[in-house]
Write a structure and sequence with these properties.
This protein has 631 residues and is of the alpha/beta class. It is 30% helix and 23% strand. It has an eight-stranded mixed β-sheet, sandwiched between helices. A five-stranded parallel β-sheet has the order 16-20-22-24-28, with helices on one face. Helix 7 links the parallel strand 3 and strand 4. Helix 6 crosses helix 11. The protein is globular and about 90 Å long. The N and C termini lie far apart (68 Å).
């Protein structure tokens, strides 16, 4: 951030005598008698930063006086919630807007190179080793979920955390995340000798749009099994919009007594954590790691154990989770940047910046695939693991402020005016930009099919995606879960049928057997391999839901639907064969008005025709030989 005079220094330079300081805003001057001493100080800050236009439409005293006080309530919040206050925000904005207008390249003087990291292959001994290390470390971790957005971009009016990640069980994203953390908590404690009372904390960053509904979702579902004290909600505030290159704050077009605001970006999570006091508490509790993740990646927790194991084994201060990335693919690349002055950092560089940067620094081929068939710059998926002690040290210096950017939409090539207001933004993954060269910053690459299937596009936009590129829709996100589970079972020795290709909502997707399991059944490949026998087979049209912890599937042939539940102290061994009409996928196009939103955005619904239920409600050991043929 640009250096700036403190608010106190600014005020000392203003004439604060008899109200003449407000002469540039006559409508404000008329209303000074309405304002408290604190509100007058805020007004001086605004005028000192050239914001007199904010008062140009104000009415005379006696008219809309309450709205005028509300205006200063908003200004007070904007001033408090930004590190350095509004003076700092406006001065940062002027600097960044000037750079934008001048076309300044933020990477001038930097040379890119491939950073060091760990590339994992699913199922091999190296991955198994890292998964075990990660499970062991999980009890020393805290999780931070960045969830400030609504699902409107998906065609879903609710919060994204309430959206089912798959429709076989209807489990919503938040339930899945919490059950995964609880499963990590239990598994980690079991690896520790003696008593383990650890509760892994979860922080959820919300916004004005999502806070109340997130709290309602938690409370109406008893926090999905977590203790209420494990969960903290931190609400992100918005920042002021900017009308022009002089960083004049934008008046809300619907209310002349309100400054227009927009989200500042998920980078705010760092300043919220810093100001909350939670980092110190975690440190005092002996925690070592903070894991950041976003709200609609249903595969993420399949990658968490091994990635945390990499952080622990290599003692990374920052570990970015990544996936293999084709050259020029529309996903940012993890890159080491070294400046001519000796500075160095490992950060995400957006794909449209990486290729020209490489060409400009002695790489005429630009962003090109290497001998692996992929770019050597792995694809960033915005999931971070930070070592807590070094994180606290850094935030003590920065107060959680993250390097910002501005992205104004100009009316024309003169870059003198905007099509609409803009604002400063910051991104969670830009945290490493301020770290010293001694910081250990690396990455962990895992297969895309295992680690990354975000849900962020509505059906119309997804259907326009060029063939071969990821849809990132509710349709593809659900199918990715079935694919991952099918491939994991295959690697464990089961015979899982090949998928078929089907089209839903204009998207051609692979439809694998609909296999799901509760996180407590299996967190790692070792868990799956221990619980699934080589003599198992699952047909393409099958559905299998595993809902118990100690379920062992031995020689079982499934061609239909099988649902398995068991209480905690029940051990269930299943074999035999099941053949029934099962559960079928029926098309439910998004343009059809009669289906719920969460169905329409997928393009299919499940018709439950027949199934076998195994439900062990008593503790004990059970062996069940299933024999059903009902087609």
């Amino acid at each position: 951030m640009a250096s700036a005079e403190s608010a106190a220094d600014k005020l000392s330079n203003l004439n604060v005598g008899d109200g003449d300081w407000a002469a540039s805003a006559p409508n404000l001057q008329k209303n000074l008698s309405l304002l408290s001493a604190h509100q007058i100080e805020l007004a001086k800050i605004l005028l000192g930063e050239g914001q007199s236009h904010l008062f140009s439409q104000w009415s005379d005293p006696g008219v809309e006086d309450e709205e005028k006080k509300n205006f200063f309530d908003q200004v007070a919040r904007l001033n408090t919630n930004y590190p350095g206050g509004l003076v700092q925000y406006i001065q940062n904005a002027r600097s960044l807007l000037a750079d934008s207008k001048a076309g300044k390249n933020p990477f001038d003087g930097f040379t890119p190179s491939v950073p060091s990291g760990e590339v994992l292959t699913f199922g091999d001994d190296n991955l198994v080793k890292f998964e075990e290390a990660g499970i062991r470390e999980a009890r020393n971790a805290a999780f931070v979920l960045v969830a400030g957005g609504l699902g409107e971009r998906l065609g879903y009016k609710g919060i994204k955390l309430a959206l089912p990640l798959e429709t076989t069980t209807g489990t919503c994203f938040l339930k899945h995340y919490i059950e995964s953390i609880l499963a990590l908590q239990d598994a980690s404690c079991k690896l520790v000798q003696g008593d383990c009372q650890t509760e892994i904390p979860l922080v959820i960053m919300t916004s004005d749009d999502t806070h109340v509904r997130t709290l309602e979702l938690l409370e109406s579902n008893a926090y999905f099994g977590m203790n209420k004290t494990q969960v903290n909600l931190l609400k992100q505030e918005k920042v002021a919009c900017l009308d022009d290159n002089d960083a004049r704050l934008a008046v809300d077009p619907q209310n002349k007594y309100r400054i227009q605001t927009k989200p500042h970006g998920h980078g705010d999570v760092h300043s919220l954590l810093y100001s909350s006091g939670l980092l110190k508490k975690w440190h005092d509790d002996g925690r070592k790691w903070v894991l950041f993740f976003q709200d609609t990646n249903g595969l993420l927790f399949k990658a968490i154990p091994a990635s945390l194991g990499v952080s622990s084994t290599k003692q990374y201060h920052v570990n970015s989770l990544a996936v293999p990335r084709k050259a020029k693919e529309a996903i940012g690349g993890i890159t080491r940047l070294t400046h001519a002055d000796g500075r160095s950092m490992v950060i995400n560089v957006e794909y449209n910046q990486l290729d020209p940067l490489l060409r400009a620094t002695g790489h005429p081929e630009g962003d090109a695939n290497c001998e692996t068939g992929y770019s050597p710059y792995p694809g960033n998926i915005n999931q971070l693991i930070l070592e807590l002690d070094s994180y606290i040290q850094e935030l003590t210096k920065t107060r959680g402020a993250i390097s910002e950017f501005v992205n104004p939409k100009y009316k024309d090539s003169t870059k003198t005016s905007f099509k609409s207001s803009t604002r400063l933004e910051c991104m969670m993954q830009d945290y490493p930009k301020t770290l010293p060269p001694s910081a250990r910053v690396g990455f962990t690459v895992m297969d895309t099919w295992l680690a990354y299937a975000p849900v962020k596009n509505n059906p119309e936009d997804a259907a326009k995606v060029p063939k071969g590129n990821p849809y990132h829709s509710a349709t593809s996100g659900e199918m990715a879960i079935y694919k991952a589970n099918g491939l994991i079972l295959r690697k464990a020795g089961a015979q899982v049928a090949d998928p078929t290709l089907q089209v839903f909502n204009g998207q051609e997707v692979e439809v694998w057997p609909r296999i799901t399991w509760a996180p407590k059944w299996a967190l790692t490949f070792s868990d799956v391999r221990r619980k699934v026998g080589a003599g198992c087979s699952v047909s393409q049209r099958s559905t299998m839901v595993i809902g118990g912890r100690n379920v062992f599937i031995e020689k079982l042939a499934l061609d239909g639907a099988l649902l398995i539940k068991s209480v905690e102290d029940a051990e269930v061994k299943l074999s035999g064969f099941v053949q029934n009409k099962g559960w079928a996928l029926e098309r439910a196009d998004y343009s059809h008005g009669s289906f719920p939103e969460e169905i329409k955005i997928r393009g299919f619904r499940i018709e439950k025709r027949d199934q076998v239920d195994v439900n062990e409600t008593e503790p004990g050991k059970f062996s069940r030989v299933l024999e059903q043929k009902s087609i």
